[in-house]
Amino acid sequence: YTDLAIETYRKAIELQNNFPDAYCNLANALKEKGMVKDAEDCYNTALKLAPTHADSLNNLANIKREQGFIEEATRLYLKALEVFPEFAAAHSNLASVLQQQGKLQDALAHYKEAIRIQPSFADAYSNMGNTLKEMQDIQGAQTCYQRAIQINPAFADAHSNLASIHKDCGNIPEAIQSYRTALKLRSDFPDAYCNLVHCLQIICDWSDYEDRMQKLVRIVADQLEKNRLPSVHPHHSMLYPLSHEQRKQIAAKHASMCAEKITILHK
Asked: Which sections of the protein are TPR repeats (predicted)?
């Protein structure tokens, strides 16, 4: 399907090579296929033809954010909103980069704006919940996650986020239920799986214990190998049959994530 879309948009450009929408659509298809550099070039071409093409500004900003160029992404989102102030996705995307920079009040304002424009924006509700959780507003976060699930019952991230609230509040049976729902919706969900395993340990549920441990160790080994943040928290690592080396690596990854957050906050 993506290949067909790419071919179709390329033909459209051959017929009319000054049409920014076609370049933007081609870029979207290229990005979906993992051809990020080509996608970036196409968004830039669209913006050369039409510097105020809001979709291209927003989508190019998404690429910059994924590449870690937060300031450039912020500039592009703001430009997209200057062009089109009622652009819900750009408000939500800008909110997430502001959240990343620790500008939580500003992030909250843009999530609220995204939801005002598009009241059924489940992603914005779930991400706003994450911001409120960071601000220690647990009740507000829970309400956001529940609203996201109400809008989209198949939203695995929102179920997992709600589960984490239950877990932090000590409501372990509710947490287990929500993690299980998240995993039914998305079987490959390391964070939800590792948190579920921890909840089962808390209530001393030893059913399938060996299988659970093997799967958890596999997940952590894979994450460490791929240089990703492990789904097991450093001070939970002693609960599982991990090697001392793995425990040290888990602690190091989480420590460097905290250090990065502090660096961003001090910028």
From this structure: 20-53, 54-87, 88-121, 122-155, 156-189
* pLDDT band for position 13 (cuts 50, 70, 90): confident
Whether residue 91 lies in the annotated active site: no
Q: What residue has token string 């296929």?
A: 33
Of 110, 233, 235, 266, catalytic: 235
What are 18-25's contacts with CB under 8 Å, separation 24+? Answer: 18/49, 19/49, 20/46, 20/47, 20/49, 20/50, 20/53, 20/56, 21/46, 21/53, 23/49, 23/56, 24/53, 24/55, 24/56, 24/59
Q: Which amino acid is at 202?
A: I
- Note the pLDDT tens digit of each residue in 157-202: 999 999 999 999 999 999 999 999 999 999 999 999 999 999 999 9
pLDDT at 2: 80
DSSP state of 137: -
- Per-residue tokens: 150: 């109400």
3-state secondary structure of 171: coil
CA-to-CA distance for 166 and 168, rounded, in angstroms?
Answer: 6
Distance CA 91, CA 80 (A): 9
What is d(CA 148, CA 154) in angstroms, rounded to the nearest whole number? 10
164/181 Cα distance (integer angstroms): 13
Which of 262, 209, 197, 263 minimizes the C-alpha distance to 233? Answer: 197
Distance CA(218)–CA(173), nearest Å, equals 25
Burial of 126 (0-12, 13-18, 19+ CB in 10 A): buried
The torsion region of residue 155 among left (phi > 0), alpha (psi -120 to 50) and beta comes to beta
